[in-house]
Design a protein that fits this description.
Length: 188
């Protein structure tokens, strides 16, 4: 399968697929997270240690609109890293920001798998995590390593930078979304 994909997809296309796969994945989350949390809030609190379950319910118990704002912030970060990578491919620059975004996206898919295993059911985002995020991430890593554009050291550093960068971006997105929708932008 990889040889065929290598012929069909340029490296630029592989890089530009990141925000597209991200949008499909997060659309699944946006559409399903609020109703899922309403139905499963109590079970989540029971299955996780006391403080963690309540904290997750607070974070993921937000309205669909405020969650979408937080996802929008993440999309901006992913898009920035993708544009950077597109320019770096043409001009010989570093792909470290893209490596950071890809590492977090890849690792994020395992959180969805873990949630579904823990709860023994569908959880928001698991379908696209399995069908899109994991295959895309594996192929993107394969292409970047094959083209000698990524080393293990850069991939590891990317993961560290990605985790460090995603935390403030998520915080800002969640705070902004919560404020916007507390001030009457939620139409329900």
């Amino acid at each position: 399968m990889f040889p065929w994909l290598n012929q069909v997809l340029s490296l630029h296309t592989v890089i530009w697929l990141l925000p597209i796969v991200f949008m499909f994945h997060d659309l699944e989350e946006i559409v399903t997270v609020e109703p899922f949390m309403r139905r499963n809030r109590m079970e989540i609190e029971k299955r996780l240690p006391s403080g963690i379950g309540k904290r997750l319910n607070k974070i993921f118990g937000m309205r669909t609109g405020s969650f979408a704002v937080a996802v929008g912030f993440m999309l901006l970060g992913v898009s920035f890293c993708t544009v950077w990578a597109g320019i770096a491919l043409d001009q010989g620059g570093s792909l470290l920001p893209f490596a950071a975004a890809l590492a977090v996206f890849f690792a994020h898919s395992f959180t969805h798998l873990g949630q579904s295993v823990l709860l023994r059911r569908y959880t928001p985002g698991v379908a696209t995590a399995v069908l899109l995020v994991l295959p895309y991430s594996i192929y993107a890593y394969y292409r970047l390593f094959s083209a000698d554009l990524l080393t293990w050291a850069t991939a590891e550093l990317g993961l560290l930078l990605g985790v460090g960068g995603v935390i403030p971006l998520l915080w800002l997105g969640h705070k902004t979304g919560t404020r916007l929708f507390k001030n009457g932008l939620d139409f329900e």
